[in-house]
Amino acid sequence: MKPLSAHCRESLSSGLIALLAMLAAASFASQSSAQSVRSALENAAGELEYDGKSDYSHIRVRRRGPIRSMIFVRDNGQEVLETQMDVRRPADLKFEYLRFLFASYLFQPDPKQVLIVGLGGGSMVHYLQQTDPGVKIDAVEIDPLVVKLAADMFGTKPTENVNIVTADGFKFIAAAKEQTYDVIYMDAFLKPSAETDGTGAPLALRTQQFYKQLQEKLKQGGVVAFNLNPHEELEADIRELSAAFPQVYIFQMSQFNGVVAVATTDAARLDANELTRRGKALDRRFKSSLDFQEMPRRLRR
Q1: 265 burial class (0-12, 13-18, 19+ CB within 10 angstroms)?
Q2: What is the DSSP string of 97-127?
Q3: Which of 40, 67, 278, 297 has the fewest CB atoms lying closer than 10 Å?
């Protein structure tokens, strides 16, 4: 896994990201460069508040001022940002891929029930609670330590409208026979292994069988939004999605060459002009930190 892939949940700043990305590339060349990457991230993320391990991850939490970071530590000691949150404004989405996951609203503007697979620190939960508080959320996370840290250090806890489940997302979806959703957000990553791709995305969540299961869990007009990290098989992943869903809209990220894919079961495809019109309506409705009307500009043609 690349040291600063799109798996990083939230951004430090565009300038710092660029610096760390260059250091990350250099880390593959030498031991000393790898140490430079670790030192740069540690300096940027701040003082260590927590260091612990689970069956799935080695996790550190760092804080600099109001900015708290959840960090996954790879076997070589490399630190990878999982979540970064301003504890004063937890609903702010710092990474662009997080913001573009909510391009789901361009296709399903009035969700009542959503599923988030992959909790992290819970930035998506905070955003939905603040911006569209009537939405009922099921958030599924495989690692109990992540769930605990999300609650204790990032304020992401169950509420009347938020149900947090510690479970394997694949098994949760397979077992949810009756439950259906307006939107499913797929943002699940593990430590890279033989059971994942190079970015840590579980291979079990990249099959035609799984995509069929996802479609069975959608309500009429429902959509699935995928965070796809940059890796060698990214275009193959996009082709598999396009083979599984009637419509797939690919939003190109400006950082790290990742994409967000929004898949629908609609027979007809919406053009960019219609999506821009819908985005303007969403901007008037929510007045949030997101710029919905600009999102269609990132669509691949």
Answers
A1: middle
A2: HHHHHGGGGGT-SS-SEEEEE--TT-HHHHH
A3: 297
Which residue carries 């708290």 as its tokens? 68
| Percentage of residues in the chain having pLDDT higher than 90 | 65
Place of tokens 């530590």: 73
Q: Which residues of 97-133 are buried (b: 16+ CB within 10 A; e: fewer)?
A: bbbbbbbbbbbbbebebbbbbbbbbbbbbbbbbebbe
Would the pTM count as exceeding 0.90? no
Per-residue pLDDT band for 82 (boundaries 50, 70, 90) equals confident
The token pair that represents 104 in the structure block: 């789901």
**E-assigned strands of 167-214?**
181-186
Spatial CA neighbour of 114 closest among 213, 202, 212, 224: 224
Cα distance between the two ends of the chain: 28
Q: How far is CA 227 from the centre of its chain?
A: 5
Across the range 275-283, mean pLDDT stands at 98
Q: DSSP secondary-structure letter at 269?
A: P
